[in-house]
Amino acid sequence: MDGKYSKVVCPAEKFVIQQSLKDLQAQLPPVQFCRVHRNYIVNVKEVTKINTYNNEIFFRDGESLFFSRRYIDEFLQAFKIFK
User: What is the reported pTM?
Assistant: First the structure.
């Protein structure tokens, strides 16, 4: 695939779209989707736990990923949590 692309992971399936993550984020509702890393945007409704000590986010499906300090303030605001 040429150009920019993003992998989208949903509960039922995973697929690839030919669009940059930045462009994809611009089309998503900012109240529900938040950038947490240069490579990740997450659905905040799927988050079950946030470990700010080791920068890890846990999801309903049991998966987890690490977030970047660069995006921490915006991400925590989605949960009304402050550092």
Answer: 0.82
